[in-house]
Amino acid sequence: MDLLRFATAGSVDDGKSTLIGRLLLDSKAIFEDQLEAVETTSKSRGYDYTDLALLTDGLRSEREQGITIDVAYRYFATPTRKFIIADTPGHVQYTRNMVTGASTADLGLVLVDARQGLTEQSRRHAVILSLLRVPHLVLAVNKMDLVDYDQAVYDRIHEEFTAFATKLNIPDLEIIPISALKGDNVVTRSEHMPWYDGSSLMHHLEHVHVASDRDLVDARFPVQYVVRPKSDEFHDYRGYAGQVAGGVLKPGDDVLVLPSGMTSKIAGIDLFDKEITEAYPPMSVTVRLEDDVDVSRGDMICRPQNAPKPSQDIDAMICWMTNEPLKPRQKLAIKHTTRTGRALIKDIQYRLDVNSLHRDQDTKELALNEIGRVQLRTTVPLLCDPYSKNRTTGSFILIDEATGVTVGAGMINNAS
Q1: Are residues 201 and 60 in the same domain?
Q2: pLDDT for residue 256 is more than 90
Q3: Residue 30 and residue 13: Cα distance in Å, rounded?
Q4: pLDDT, position 50
């Protein structure tokens, strides 16, 4: 079975946590004692329904306020596919959490309240998902039960969001009317909306095609660890462990090791305790080479005729994630795939208003949760690709060297 990672997004009280609770409940992915605890808590609060949001809102402050603050990950599977859900916050001050949850997602699920229609936060999250190059987007028009399942309400939101989406980079868009609380169109088709002839949300999640979203052309294998067993049985074994970031690797392939420039052939590829005939994203494997070349953590194995250009001058979009603003001439640690170094912020070109898409070129700094275009200079060459081409080799994080805290997430536009 393949894996689908998806992230929920949208305004506060649009029902993101309730929807995930409904997906977990209707797919039988929660235990009876968990459900009993949620039912008991719901009754103690005077609710006449089971508050499914309690299944995902795990922090005490989240449960008390009825909001999502941190990213909550949930795992479940159906006979068709495995799922990892990132339940992300709706509040504007938690934009950084939303970026974190969506950065690895194959699909973004934006909820809107049918009574409220599109809000500024709904648009904001759609823009961020577009910037993060999440290839599939579902707009779930939730709480249809509170507008009497009115088709006119759905049609109005459908038309408004479709027009807005034309300004964004959204390759695949699906708009589904649902009721997370009642279960309409979540796992099974709703009898209350005969005018909707599309699939249920679960059916779409199970069948959306994600395999072709990954770069299977440009071979990229960042080395994370050199495997040298100490036992006598494997004293000749030397392998390079990591996660395939792009392309397809096979035994016999000619490869180039960067930044050294040494060449060799793949002798074999190991997965756990067996040898395999090919590796592709996002598999974690150990690659063995025919020659004893110098390869260490942070190096990259790629094709001799299709290699990234080592670059120290980086043009990137940055989401700033800490209270102290980002300013020109600031020095930070940078982590790109398995490679680390230091970076100097040369210039902030503009701040992007993610509500209006306006570029503020007069800005002198980036504050918490703001996104802008930045020029960096790194101390070590990065073996990178544009983010639009490869989300793994095109992204990086910035780290405060004094505290070790991640303060920024970057998406590379180009490098030289």
Answers
A1: yes
A2: yes
A3: 23
A4: 65
* Three-state secondary structure of 352-369: ECCCCCCEECCCCCECCC
Specify whether 206 is located in the same domain as 257.
Answer: no
Range of the domain at 335: 310-415
Q: Do 47 and 92 fall into the same domain?
A: yes
* Whether pTM exceeds 0.85: no
Based on the domain organization, do 333 and 226 belong to the same domain?
no
Closest-CA residue to 407 (of 301, 295, 330): 330
Is residue 193 located within the same domain as residue 325? no
DSSP string over 165-234: HTTS--SEEEEEE-BTTTTBTTTB--TT-TT--S--HHHHHHH---GGGS--SS-EEE--EEE---SSTT
73/168 same-domain check: yes
- pLDDT at position 43, please? 73
Q: Please indicate, yes or no, whether residues 298 and 234 belong to a single structural domain of this protein.
A: yes
Same domain, 132 and 155: yes
Residue 100 three-state SS:
helix
Strands 359-360 and 339-352: antiparallel
Q: Which of 302, 331, 356 is the last residue of a domain?
A: 302
CB 81 within 8 A of CB 205: yes
> Which amino acid does the sequence have at 50?
T
Question: Which CATH number do you get for residue 298?
Answer: 2.40.30.10
Using an 8 Å Cβ cutoff, are 316 and 410 in contact? yes
| Residue type present at position 204 | H
**Structural domains in the chain (count):** 3
Rounded CA-CA distance 68/178 in Å is 20
Counting every residue, how long is the chain?
Answer: 416
The answer to whether 305 and 256 have CB atoms below 8 angstroms apart is no
Query: Which pLDDT band holds residue 272 (cuts at 50, 70, 90)?
Result: confident
